[in-house]
Design a protein that fits this description.
Helix content is 14%, strand content 30%. The chain folds into 2 domains: 11-40 and 87-245, Jelly Rolls (Sandwich), CATH 2.60.120.10; 249-334, Jelly Rolls, CATH 2.60.120. The radius of gyration is 19 Å and the shape is globular. The relative contact order is 0.18. The strands form 5 sheets. Strands 1, 14, 15, 16, 17, 18 and 19 form a 7-stranded antiparallel sheet that branches. It has a 7-stranded antiparallel sheet with strand order 2-3-4-11-6-9-13, with helices on one face. By secondary structure, it is an alpha+beta fold.
Length: 348
């Protein structure tokens, strides 16, 4: 088995953006509301059976290929189902602020959504306008009743004022644990890696096309609000969610771009080669995005040419591989030990 080229897969959304995705992936956007691309996705948008699913150049759904040969694609361990690859990767190019929202954890998802995954996620900043920020967690302990009241009145100013504002720069990695309220300013372009679900609880739906009744996963706010942390995220806790590893130039050795706390859920690496070979990536499912230059993904028996803007799904059966040429890549993989770490209620 060899890596499969993933044609561009832009996703229409309520918010503006997508020009930087189009420039990277070499496409002409159909509208100014294509701010996301789902790379290598074998799961779809919540409530929509098709939107987001990755389609290969042959027209086949990647999910169907994985389902037909889970051993070849993921090594034989079973996640949620035979088509599960343990990760969802997105490009997210926001030209307007995203709403304050929260994703549930694995325990909540298992109890209420019949799913072993929650939605812990992380952002790796590819580009940003000056003074743009992400908003992560509350800066003070909140009274749940007060949060309910502010949510119902759609008091955006109050919610943002009670959140930690983190100005970002290119190469920064930010982990957002499930249960943590968050938002992203317009002007930020990120690669997002996350658990493979699309579960979101909107605390601020007034800046979206959703209604109140479409903001609680169909469960009602009385049910979903216990999944929302109201505890203060202290400065030292926030600092532990941020990695500056990618703010310096990449080298030929693959390096981790996210805080260590992300490792049980997903991993994100980068490497850059300038005529020499990179270090080895061990066999396993991966999504590879070529961010600069051209070169080749080289396995034991196959050499796959790559060029800036291309994305590939790499199957486990391709074996150990390395990068050669004059190129830079991002590599997203399932969490360390997946799927053995996938257990009800959290990470085993």
């Amino acid at each position: 088995m060899i890596p499969v080229l993933l044609p561009p897969n832009p996703v229409q959304h309520f918010y503006r953006g997508g020009d930087r995705i189009a420039a990277l992936r070499g496409i002409v956007p159909e509208t100014d509301h294509q701010p996301e691309e789902w790379l290598g996705a074998t799961v779809s948008r919540f409530g929509d059976p098709l939107t987001g699913l990755a389609v290969t150049g042959s027209g086949a759904l990647l999910r169907d290929l994985v389902t037909a040969d889970p051993t070849g694609w993921t090594g034989g361990g079973r996640g949620r189902d035979a088509g599960d690859v343990g990760i969802l990767v997105k490009l997210l190019d926001a030209r307007q602020r995203l709403p304050v929202h929260v994703h549930p954890d694995r325990g909540f998802a298992a109890r209420h959504l019949d799913c072993p995954y929650g939605k812990t996620e992380a952002w790796y900043v590819l580009d940003t306008e000056p003074d743009c920020a992400v908003h992560v967690g509350w800066n003070a302990d909140l009274d749940p009743t007060e949060l309910d009241r502010r949510r119902d009145s759609q008091d955006s100013e109050w919610m943002l004022a009670h959140m930690n504002r983190v100005v970002v720069r290119e190469g920064m990695g930010v982990l957002v644990p499930a249960g943590t309220a968050h938002a992203i300013d317009g002007g930020i372009f990120v690669a997002e890696v996350q658990e493979p679900t699309d579960f979101s609880i909107l605390l601020e739906w007034s800046v979206t096309t959703s209604t109140r009744d479409e903001s609680h996963l169909g469960l009602g706010f009385d049910t979903v609000m216990p999944a929302v942390s109201t505890a203060r995220l202290a400065p030292e806790q926030l600092a532990a969610l941020i990695s500056d590893a990618g703010t310096t130039s990449a080298g030929a050795t693959f390096r981790s771009l996210l805080p260590a706390a992300a490792d049980p859920y997903f991993r994100l690496w980068d490497a850059a080669v300038r005529g020499a070979a990179s270090s080895i990536r061990p066999a396993g499912f991966a999504v590879v995005l070529v961010t600069e230059g051209e070169g080749a993904i080289v396995g034991a028996a196959e050499r796959i040419p790559v060029v800036r803007g291309q994305a590939f799904a790499v199957p486990h059966a391709f074996g150990d591989w390395r990068l050669e040429g004059e190129a830079s890549v991002l590599v997203a993989e399932p969490g360390a030990g997946w799927p053995g770490t996938l257990a009800e209620g959290g990470v085993a």
